[in-house]
Amino acid sequence: MWRRLAGLLLAFAAATVALWLLSARLSAGQAGRPLRFPSDLEELRELAEALRDYERQHRGAALALFCAAYLYKQSFAIPGSSLLNVLAGALFGPWTGLVLCSALTSVGATFCYLLSGAFGKQFVVYYFPDKVALLQRKVLHHIISSACRQEPFCHRSPLWMPFSPGTRCSNCLQWLWQH
Prior knowledge:
By secondary structure, this protein is an all-alpha fold. It contains 7 helices and no strands. Helix 2 (41-57) packs across helix 4 (81-92) and helix 3 (59-75) packs parallel to helix 5. The longest helix is centred in the middle third of the chain and has 34 residues, at 94-127.
């Protein structure tokens, strides 16, 4: 079980180093200005202004960095992707930003699901067996009752799974079925 934790930490460290290397390359082009994730709208405005000129001159590099940062946040379920959605609109335009963020959200949620299944499932089942059993019973009951009423499963899941919508069903359901 500890190997899986080490694997998750290694994946996180590798992703962090890769993102840092990409941002260091971009920072060198911006006269050494350090790049970091924005935490509020003011920091988002400053970052957007700093990146606009660079994006016009080096569209590919700016796009690669944005995609890497977005996938990093989505894959490891780090809060703050909504500010990156706004940044995408500011840098790439509203329609391109919408398509880009939609695609990156899907890919990032898939990565998060795969990481969760590969590294998190055993910990959750081992340390929270009662909670997993309770969720399994609730899911089974809801699926049986939904089959009669033809309702989608995730329709009511916000009532008992306190996660963001992107990770609510995808990360938890795999633990419930393969116990």
